[in-house]
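call fold(seq) -> tokens
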Amino acid sequence: QVQLVESGGGLVQAGGSLRLSCAASSTIFRLSAMGWYRQAPGKQRELVARIATGGTANYADSVKGRFTISRDNAKNTVYLQMNSLKPEDTAVYYCNNMNPQIWGQGTLVTVSS
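ret:
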């Protein structure tokens, strides 16, 4: 049973944009704050954006002003609009709630300089 499906990653030049999508099961999504995490090669997974059920969003300093998280509660879907991408944004991106038990396959974002 697939519970988290991330999509939208790809190869982009520095300064470019991508929009990630994540379809989650209702068990994970409903009544939960959701977040986008990323894991770069050789580094720990980190939370880069969080959105509450009501829409209040918070961001890591490294992406603030460049990334925008949003959610569609009717579709159990979370989005991440990424603008002004930098090579250091290269990572596998995952979505999940704030108490992750399982992970999806993630989507790879590669930013070339």
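The mean pLDDT is 95.
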